[in-house]
Automatic annotation (TrEMBL):
Keywords of this entry: ATP-binding, Kinase, Nucleotide-binding, Serine/threonine-protein kinase, Transferase
Region (Disordered): 1-34, 371-437
Domain Protein kinase: 82-366
UniProt feature, compositional bias: Polar residues: 416-437
Species for this entry: Sphagnum troendelagicum
Annotated PROSITE patterns: PROTEIN_KINASE_ATP (PS00107), PROTEIN_KINASE_DOM (PS50011), PROTEIN_KINASE_ST (PS00108)
Name used for this protein in its record: Protein kinase domain-containing protein
Compositionally skewed regions (Low complexity) per UniProt: 1-29, 374-406
First and last residue of the signal peptide: none
Family listed: Belongs to the protein kinase superfamily.
Domain of life of the source: Eukaryota
Length: 437
């Protein structure tokens, strides 16, 4: 199968960022480059009325969740009329705004009071949006885990589809790893995020009714104030195979650079496809490089292909590790993580580990102190270490501020900052890790 590509003139995203958007089929509006699959008519069974007619929608929503049902006006007022300076980000399916709602109800709250939320307003040019919205409501409404973002509620009114999440103050892993001007994430934080994200995926795969996430990538890993990773975006999630079935057959959706090769080739989806994507993200964390980067020389644009030869070779490993870490990483940890990533990226899906195994491998890598650059050993993961990362003047933790609630260095590109708030200085979470419920 050869996915076709559409191009777009839109978006504030850079070209490399744009290519990391979720593949989809039915948008009519110019969008960032996306992959479309063969079966563009998949959603033809979704009659227009299921997009605009609430009664049918209410049948489609699985019972049992504890979600708040917001009115459009509630959310309009919670986000200050979807003000551009409340914009947290834009994805393939809509824009995300910061807002405030009542502690318990659905009414909007004054800025800085009640609960801080992220409100995703889906584009409504295509039926695809409804399907995504419904999947999100149905999966996140039922699944609860410390490494999944919490869905607080939704709005479904006429042709409006919105989702209301807990606000994640440190934004996405993508921003921390790749945004121009962002300070390099310390090694220990990368390992913490890798473990948290792995725990989230393991939880999904090990659920009584297993779920395949299908869109694991850095922009879908959100971070709370302590860098706890939380998976967001269940729009493409699928129930795993049932009975003696080995896979689910789907059209190919996901994101270039993250989707497992056998899934792209056959449309056969298994939980091992998520494991492959996890391997890609782990590699991005090790290298500080994007899975696909058209701005690099031709042999380096595809991260997995470029990195494969280094992953299993101790002597070459240092060439792979993010230069911006300046040697502030555990040698043993880097080796183990590289081997793990290699394992996850096995071409044969059956050779990939289970996410539970990934969790077990990452858990002991959390506190290693054998720094590659030993002159920095005693201070690794400390505030002074972070200071050195920034500009060598020891003031990194003073150079951060909140922009729309995201931690940004002052010299980084920022959007409007009407909600500027100082973040507490960096600290490691004392939280213990476990596999989760
Ligand atoms: N709960 C949240 N709290 C804080 N910021 C969020 C939250 N949800 C999303 N965002 C921000 O909004 C951005 C856009 O999210 P969205 O999921 O719509 O798109 P994306 O992940 O970048 O791309 P894609 O369409 O492929 O999923 C995210 O990258 C993140 O920066
Ligand atoms: Mg997303």
């Amino acid at each position: 199968m050869t996915p076709t590509t559409t191009t777009s003139s839109s978006s504030s995203s850079s070209s490399s960022k744009a290519s990391s958007k979720t593949m989809t089929t039915t948008f009519t509006k110019p969008r960032p480059p996306t992959i479309t699959s063969m079966q563009t008519s998949l959603f033809s069974h979704l009659h227009k009325s299921s997009w605009s007619g609430t009664p049918i929608v209410s049948d489609e929503i699985r019972r049992g969740g504890n979600l708040r049902i917001f009115s459009y006006l509630d959310l309009k007022s919670a986000t200050r009329n979807f003000r551009p300076d409340s914009l947290l980000g834009e994805g393939g399916f809509g824009s995300v705004y910061k807002g405030w709602v009542d502690e318990t109800g659905t009414a909007a709250a004054r800025a800085g009071t009640g609960i801080t939320v992220a409100v995703k307003q889906l584009n409504h040019e295509g039926l695809q949006g409804h399907k995504e919205w419904l999947a999100e409501v149905n999966f996140l409404g039922q699944l609860h885990h410390p490494n999944l973002v919490k869905l607080i509620g939704y709005c479904c009114e006429d042709d409006q589809r919105l989702l209301v999440y807990e606000f994640m103050p440190r934004g996405s892993l993508e921003n921390h790893l790749f945004r121009k001007g962002a300070m390099p994430l310390p090694w220990a934080t990368r390992m913490k995020i890798a473990l948290g994200a792995a725990q989230g995926l393991a939880f999904l795969h090990e659920a009584v009714k297993p779920v395949i996430y299908r869109d694991f990538k850095t922009s879908n890993i959100l971070l709370d104030s302590e860098y706890t990773a939380k998976l967001s975006d269940f729009g493409l999630a699928k129930d795993g195979p049932e009975g003696d079935k080995t896979h689910v057959s789907t059209r190919v959706m996901g994101t270039y650079g993250y989707a497992a090769p056998e899934y792209v080739m056959t449309g056969h989806l298994t939980s091992r496809s998520d494991v492959y994507s996890f391997g890609v993200v782990l590699l991005e964390m090790l290298t500080g490089r994007r899975s696909m980067d058209k701005n690099r020389p031709s042999g380096e644009q595809n991260l997995v292909e470029w990195a494969r030869p280094y992953l299993n070779d101790r002597r070459k490993l240092f060439r792979l590790i993010d230069q911006r870490l300046e040697g502030h990483y555990s040698m043993k940890g880097a080796q183990k993580a590289a081997i793990l990533s290699h394992h996850c990226l096995s071409r044969d899906p059956k050779s990939r580990p289970l996410m539970g195994d990934v969790v077990d491998t990452l858990a002991p890598l959390q506190d290693l102190k054998d720094m590659a650059n030993s002159s920095h050993q005693s201070t690794s993961n400390s505030l002074s270490d972070r200071s050195r990362y920034s500009n060598g003047n020891g003031s990194s933790h003073h150079t951060h501020s909140y922009h729309n609630g995201y931690l940004s260095p002052h010299n980084g590109p920022v959007r409007g900052s009407s909600n500027a708030t100082q973040l507490p200085s960096y600290h490691q979470s004392p939280r213990q890790y476990s596999r989760g419920p």
